[in-house]
Design goal:
The chain is α+β, with helices and mostly antiparallel strands and about 120 residues long. The chain has helices at about 5, 20, 55-60, 70-75, 80-95, 110-124, and strands at about 10, 15, 40, 70, 95-100. The strands form 2 sheets. A 3-stranded antiparallel sheet has the order 4-3-5. Helix 4 (about 70-75) crosses helix 5 (about 80-95).
Amino acid sequence: MSHEQEWVDDEAGPVVRPYAVARGRTKSTSATLDLLATVALTGQPAPAQADLGTQHRRLLNSVSGHARPIAEVAAELNLPVQVVRVLLGDLLGYGLVTVRAPRSKASSPTESLLREVINGLRAL
C-alpha cells in the first residue's frame, strides 16, 4: 500500500479529519466571518514566519483570480465552513487576504424600485 492510499478510505473519503486540517482549532483568530463575506488576496508576499499548510495554499489559489464568498470557497475546497474560517483567520493575520462583509439588506434596492426601473426601460 502506497503512502497516499494510507490516508484515503474509498468509502469514507479522506481519513484526515477537519480538526486536523485546522490544527485542532475550532475558532478563528479574527472576528466572526459571515458565510456571504467575500475573500480576496491582498497581493502581499507571505511573511518569512508564515506557517502555511497545504490547505492554506489551496485557499489562496481559490481566491487568486477574484473575490469570492466564504461559502463558495468552502464548497470548492470541500472543507467545512468552520475549518475555512480558521484558515482565513490565519491568512488575515499574515496580511495575505482581506475579507469584506456582505452588503446589508438595507443597502439593497427594494422590489418596487427595481420594478420602476424595468418599467422605465420598457417605456424607452
